[in-house]
Amino acid sequence: MRRSLTVGIVGSGGDGVVVLGSFLQKLAASQGYYSQMHMYYGPQIRGGASAVKLILDAERLSLPADETDIMLCFDWEKYSELEQELPLGVDTLVLHDNTPLKEINLPESSFLVGFSRKSREVTGSALSKNMVALGLLKRILALPEDRLKKTIEEDKDLILLKENLLAIEAGERLFCEFSFPELRLAPAQDDMPKVILHGNGAMAQAAIRAGCGAFFGYPITPASEIMQEMQEGLSRRGGIFLQAEDEIASAGLSIGASLAGVKSMTSTSGPGFDLMTEMMGLASAAEIPMVIIDVQRCGPSTGIPSKSEQSDLDHAIYGGHGDTPRVVMAPYDVEGCYRLVIESINIAQYFQTLVILLSDQWLGQTLVTFNSEFLRKDYPTKERKRPAREGLEPYHRYQLTEDLISPMAAVGDEGSVYQATGLTHNEKGTPAFDFEAHQRMHEKRWKKLMPLCQRHELVKVFGEEESRSGIVTWGSSAQIVLETVKDLGLQDEVKVCVPELIHPLPGRIASFLGSTEKLLVIEMNYSGQLHHYLRSQVDLPQKTKIYSRAGGRPFSRKELTGPITEIAR
Amino acid sequence: MTRTADYRTTLKPVWCPGCGNFGVLSALTRRALPDLGIPNHQVLIVSGIGCASRIPAYVDTYGLNSIHGRAVVIAQGAKLAKPELAVIAIGGEGDLFSIGAGHLPHAVRRNIDITCIMVNNFVYALTKGQTSPTTPHLERGEELFLSWQFYPPVDPVLDMISYSVSTRSSFVAQGIATDVSHLGWLIEEGIKHKGFSFINVLTPCVTFNPPELFNTIREKASYLREGELVELPDSSAEEPWPHDPSDISLALRLAQAPVLEKPHLGILFRGREKGDDGRVHLSRRSGS
Asked: Is B149 a residue whose pLDDT tops 70?
């Protein structure tokens, strides 16, 4: 029996690969298994290569193995397009529908199962071949079915299972026709209720939780799920949703709603993020709360829209002309996606500033099963500082207060009418062209954010404080880094720092860097953007190495083993 | 900001003496807003960048002098968030019809209740005299309206009235900055209209336009009065018809008149209005 198993499923769009993967994930979740399902797809709208890599784990949330334990293939031609993402190991059990192309070396345990043939036999059509495969996988993994009935009743998608009973049962019977190797999953260890969610979904749910009442967006891969879920969520609550004509407009609409006192948000990916740049400057200069989620994909330009990369950090921190202070945060798991959206909305409101939240395709679209307790936790929400109702003094929108955060009236408030501008302005908001006012307002906007540097809890540190070897990594890469350190048994030798708040630089990153003699920075972009940023802010140890490469393929344990082992020495 | 009785702040405008923007400012602050009697905290004026876009600082209501070309989107966001506000987007023709032109058809189709005032002075004045989308186009050898620019315009003019009518903006009007009282009335009607209102204001630029340009406009201008026969350009072979702003096909015919041959002043079209809250009502996504 195995604690965990990694299953790959490949086919052509229309083969039902994602449906099969997600049904397997749902069935496993109903029994208490943790899982992560990463999706791979090409640029085609229909009929392209489609694959999932799914890990089922009886004990904890873990990442899919580099090589799959089971590979279920409906179409070898499509497999060859995704071979680098789903390599076959010598021990991989291969279950396939048709004979492979010559150049693929099949492992010893390969079985030509004939899902389509079986589907046609029992249903008259090959369409249910994924359900036949589901039946067989259930038996091979020995998935129990205790709570299955209840789950089917609760999940309307699973009704399909009832409708495809013949195909599923035929698949189950296939188990006895071949002598498969033993690949049973150990019984699930904990009984906590599970939830299946991807980062994009978690972000949308969190925005609503934090009181976001207006969302504006424009379709873009791989961020569109956030927009779609916000449309659902806000329309149910009488909120404001509008699909804009472009990303300049979605950013502008969001600034307009914010000016009128409604918490608003927009989400996008690289190219759309570029278009928002001028609006980012306005939000920063006129101190209008603004939250942008950037679900990063491979760049530059159109890049690889459906694949992950962490290459928008430079733009997030520095993008735009003039000196434009903003807050940049990056979650590294789905729970963080949820928590940091609430945090971003709070920070934007409280500090009256621009907050950019960097997610990525991997985080955004990987479906994860895990304990749902974080959804039920209490998260405080913050509101803007408003002008005193009956002020004796005339209201000055940009009044220099002790904490440099000026009370902000919402358009419509009586007695605090003001005119804001992207021009350099004085405390009243009146355009000003003198050096003193310009310098003073820069100081105000930068320094008001400084308390954030003390938010130690927004920097996660794993491992032993005394270790002198450290890794800094960020975003979804942190998951595989932490997993690899654990797999290598190096938790005592190598500590890992994962900053969720990246800019302004939290004190805790500086102290982590100060406590290391050997440092490794791991990130998924060609130029090493986090490394450059850190280097610009603090002195790094002399022995600093960088492991960074372009995205397009998730990091594997295999490639990280060398660099991590080296700094542990 | 100290408020004067007529919705003006005490700030002195940066405009040249004699600038048409003074007329627009007066129409707004001395005529439209006082006549409507909207409390100043219930008004938001969003502008872009340009001479006319300085207006928010001079009006004692909520205001945002934002980014070049983007006033219309920010204004829509604010209106959606607080439907009880009167929201005005203001800018020049370069602002609204060049860099920001992509937003207009979408504002029109959404028909969100904002009033868009385009201060059209036929030139990029803030940047000192470059050609704008409405700078009169010169045919070879032509001398009329010869501009004071190094490079006379060679591209045909974008006719914003014809454009707005053809996209079926739900309220289209044209005023002139030199007739404050009439312009004030148009703005008032625009604000009262529940839906996207577009008001083009023919405005003189005393610094970068030759006087002939605006003199000709004034000479040839004719007021539209409901029920009275419209005036048509000399070149037109059509029979004049009684003006009816509720008829889109008549508005489309009116919009055929080139603005320099027969500038029509008044409400060209007044169409579909929105529900009371001015909101875009959401419908549940179906089939999921």
From this structure: no
Burial class (CB in 10 A: 0-12, 13-18, 19+), B15: buried
CATH no., domain B21-270:
3.40.50.970
**Pairwise CA distance, residues A140 & A138, whole Å:** 6
In whole angstroms, give the CA distance from residue A137 to residue A73. 13
Judge whether A173 and A3 are in contact, CB under 8 Å.
no
What ipTM was estimated for this complex?
Answer: 0.94
Mutation pick from A253, A279, A291, A425 vs chain B, by most beta carbons of B within 10 Å, is: A253
- Diameter of chain B by CA atoms? 64
CA distances from A269 to A251, A293, A315, A316 (A): 13, 8, 12, 12
Q: What is the pTM of this model?
A: 0.95
Q: How close, in Å, is residue A119 to chain B by CA atoms? A: 27
A434-484 residue pLDDT tens: 999 999 999 999 999 999 999 999 999 999 999 999 999 999 999 999 999
Peptide linkage before A219 cis (omega within 30 of 0):
no
C-alpha distances (whole Å) from B207 to each of B13, B20, B36, B262 are: 16, 11, 33, 24
State the DSSP code for A314: H
Q: Which amino acid makes up residue A252?
A: G
Domains of chain B, residue spans: 21-270
Residue A447 CB neighbours (<10 A): 12
Q: What is the pLDDT of residues B88-122, one digit of tens each?
A: 999 999 999 999 999 999 999 999 999 999 999 99
Domains, in order of start, for chain A: 4-191 (3.40.920.10), 197-376 (3.40.50.970), 385-448 (no CATH), 455-568 (3.40.50.920)
The distance of B47 to chain A (nearest Cα, Å) reads 9
Of the candidates A248, A257, A431, the beta carbon closest to that of B81 is on: A257
Start-to-end Cα distance in chain B: 52
